[in-house]
Amino acid sequence: MLKALKILLLIVVVALVPRLSLADQTWPAFDQAKFQAAQAAGKSIVVHSFATWCTTCKAQAPTLGEVARDPKFADVVFFELDIDRDPKAVEALKFTAQAQFKIYKGAKEIAWEVGMVDRDSIYKVLGQAL
Description:
By secondary structure, this protein is an alpha+beta fold. The protein contains six helices and four strands, in the order αααβαβαββα. Helix content is 44%, strand content 21%.
């Protein structure tokens, strides 16, 4: 009985723990219409591809939350692209992996990088959007 209760408790805990959404949902989910509107407006845009099972993505999350709150990035439009939930966008934007950043100035892709986890490297790459 005790073993069954422990298993039930574990199932409940796992069910209540939310799936990874990077940066505590401070980056909105990718939206094609909003992405295209930001491109048309000539905005700086960063799209980050992630997967809920990706350990690198999980390691990036605290810095992504920090970036989202950093005033110097206030004019940058950020999106999270879940590679498992939006394969059409992954294909359209030509993402090749999770934990990848693509940076756009308007409609032009100006930079991309994959797999960084340390704060300084992430800030350096995302700084290209400024």
